[in-house]
Amino acid sequence: MELVQVKHTEITKPEYYNNRELSWLAFNERVLQEAEDAQNPLLERLKFLAIFSSNLDEFFMVRVAGLQDQVKAGFHKPENKSGLTPKEQLARISEKTQALVSRQTAIYKELMKKLLPKENVHTRKIVELNEEQTNFINEYFEETIFPVLTPVAVDAYRPFPTLISKTLNMIILLEQDNVEPEFCEKVAVVQVPSVLERFIQVPSKGNEISVVLLEDIISANINKLFYGYHVKSVQSFRLTRNADLTIHEEGARDLLLEIEKELKKRKWGALTRLEVRTGEMDKGVLQFLLNELEDWEAEVYSVDCPLDLTFLFSFVKLVGEGREHLEYESFIPQPPQDLRSDENIFEKALTQDIFFNHPYESFTPIVEFVTEAANDPSVLAIKQTLYRVSGNSPVIQALKLAAENGKQVTVLVELKARFDEENNVHWAKELEQSGCLVIYGMHNLKTHSKITLVVRRKQSKIERFVHLGTGNYNDATAKIYTDMGIITTKKKFGIDATNFFNFLSGYTEKPNFHHIVVSPNDIRVEFIKLIDDEINYHLKYGKGHIRAKMNSLTDKELIMKMYEASIAGVKVDLIIRGICCLRPGIKGISENITVISIVGRFLEHARIYWFHHNGENKLYLSSADMMTRNMIKRVEILFPIFDTEIKKRIMKSIKTQFRDNVKARIQDENGVYYYNEKKDGDKCINSQEIFLKEAYRVLIDEE
Questions:
Q1: Are 128 and 170 within one domain?
Q2: pLDDT single digits (tens) 588-624
Q3: Is residue 80 domain-shared with residue 129, that is, in the same domain?
Q4: Which residues fall in the annotated binding site?
Q5: How far apart are CA 597 and CA 34, in angstroms?
Q6: Are 96 and 156 in the same domain?
Q7: Annotated binding site for Mg(2+)
């Protein structure tokens, strides 16, 4: 075969690419589909509604905010893939989001008003309460709610308050008694206290659960805040603000202090979205609100159900007690297949690479890996990167213990991990106080790598144990995110890990690594080389095949390279959970590319890259997605898998996911996703459920 020459202009047309923001909305639509899916347990469907809301908040706080900033700055240049200007993107985002929010409302009403009552669970309006419940609510208001409320009058002496992002508020229209009509109308604002539970359970008989929303209780008692006035209307609204931090790294002497300063400003950013209750807010009050907020770029969303459905997370916890049939069957992550319960992780790692497949296999051995190192007198040093950790992280506790035990502990805490900045600032201070050497990353880059190095001296011999993974050192998310990793003692991995941490902490050029590939830049270069090699192998031997799994694909250079591979005849199979700017199935361009997205019980999070290479079967795991930010703006690690059995396990998991006909959606040539429906006679293949059963089966086989 001859090398296929592809003109650059042939693969850069806007119609060959999905817009990044619209592709993200398509992902959140798939989350919403899980809330619609009657095959999912009822309370799990409510969780997906909450996840959809939480996702949308972050989208408006960061992505929409950025587009609005571009419009305000007069920037009208189309983005370089789909060719849409910022204004065009905002218009399409608005249209799509309005439709999705309408669907979310319909699902909420079905679940809360039709299906939950069948399970003896009710959300009540005040007028629906019996005498005992009414008395309870009145007492609760007087004793608990009233002391927390602060009514704010809006007039010449008391200007409209600056309300922080994601808070629920009420705007009240009042008439003063015994005053001429043209002078009597007043406006006040009351914030719904976020320190109180969003719903209040009222006394009920038997196993019935009845709750009333906090804002309904406040609204019913609002007149008690305004004696001498008649309440004309009470209307709920919620603000979302720009949450992107402006971190001036150039002039910062201490990044931690700079971030702490910026965190204080986050809650007061420019308005990006205003949500109001449908039927509550009349046009006059809405116009007054918009005038006071002074931000005309913000989109107004009228929602015909309670605002901010993230309260459903805590609601599900309440309802779930004693109603286990309404949730997924409980699952306990199993011991890793490569590590029996009676085996020591360090001694086993000296004999073979150990593979971990979370959440099906437990994250506990990773915590024990650090904890045992902290207590082992032979361990000299522990070095680790931390991007996102849990609120009460056992990994942090182990690192602190190690420092207190006299180990040399170096921790890179990424202070710029979005929405985890405050948490990470806290942990950085605690680690420093315990004697750890804490570094914050590299100039103008985020460190997103997942790597731990343990250095041990046994009988005058230095041993290096390296953990590399695709996910964060977070014991909480490890129960719901699918991730993979290895612990290895291969000498060159140990040397690479040492050089990597020295690269992060000191003044040195990027080292020449033996096995690992490190971004910025080098991972993209390596991917391009691997794809070019696959094209050449295919043209010479045939059977060209690439399989990759990631969270998002946005990097145009890599997308173009995949188009080149497809045009050359290489088969490209992609599992991309979220954003995908590549369009598969376009005749003559991407007809050899398949894209599926799996959204289910667990959040697909592993990054896997496989290249056939004429039977060489090159396989890599990585902390990096094929996104431009991961390629040039972050410190990431791509690492090879050498062990044959581990390769087989990883490839088997990918093949199973491509056969999924329950939770997989296929993207077509127009960028639209549809379920990978099973044909008549086909058995249901839910890949995540298969992996759960396999984890249990391994345990049974061992016993």
A1: yes
A2: 999 999 999 999 999 999 999 999 999 999 999 999 9
A3: no
A4: 55, 388, 418, 481, 577, 605
A5: 13
A6: no
A7: 388, 418
